[in-house]
Design brief:
176 residues, mainly alpha, Helix Hairpins, 7 helices, 73% helix
Length: 176
């Protein structure tokens, strides 16, 4: 089976799992890139160079997907017949929806007041929630319960977006 016919886990000879050894993933990535990098085929015919470019691109996409917890979660859901992009806010707990609003209000206030301490405290809280989501998602995946893993993925999506917004607020405050 060629790289083009393998799923991303198979490309790196890994089990389909949310819990990955990122060091091992990186070692395998570097090994594959050293074998398939287009520069190694610079003297080859056009078809061989194009094939190497395509394989290198697949390897890069696979690595980028598997090294990111959010992208890896979406990929695992997809492999198991769940559309990660299908949005259904009804399956998120009302308490989490309220938490989202509180975080946003708190971030807006902290940014407006240029209160870096408040932003840092919020960031810590959101990062703890991110870690909880990752653990919960992993538990569902380990139990092969991808249906119940999906709402956790959606929660993780929001948490990741919130962290991006927090980082932007930090930069904005520090730029003043």
């Amino acid at each position: 089976m060629t790289i083009a016919n393998k799923n991303y886990f198979e490309i790196f000879s890994l089990q389909e799992s949310f819990d990955l050894d990122l060091e091992n993933l990186t070692v395998e990535y570097k090994n594959l890139q050293s074998q398939m990098h287009p520069d190694k085929f610079s003297g080859a015919d056009d078809a061989s160079r194009l094939h190497a470019l395509q394989l290198s691109s697949i390897i890069n996409d696979a690595f980028d997907t598997l090294k990111s917890p959010l992208k890896r979660a979406a990929y695992l859901l997809t492999l198991n017949g769940i559309n990660p992009e299908e949005n259904n806010q009804n399956h998120l707990a009302e308490s989490f929806l309220l938490q989202q609003m509180e975080w946003r209000d708190l971030l807006d206030d902290a940014t407006e007041e240029e209160d870096l301490t408040l932003v840092e405290n919020l960031k810590q809280e959101v990062m703890e929630e991110r870690e909880n989501c990752i653990i919960e998602f992993q538990d569902f995946v380990n139990a092969y319960n991808f249906v119940d893993a999906k709402p956790i993925y959606n929660k993780l999506q929001f948490v990741e977006k919130m962290l991006v917004e927090i980082n932007r607020s930090e930069e904005k405050i520090l730029d003043y």
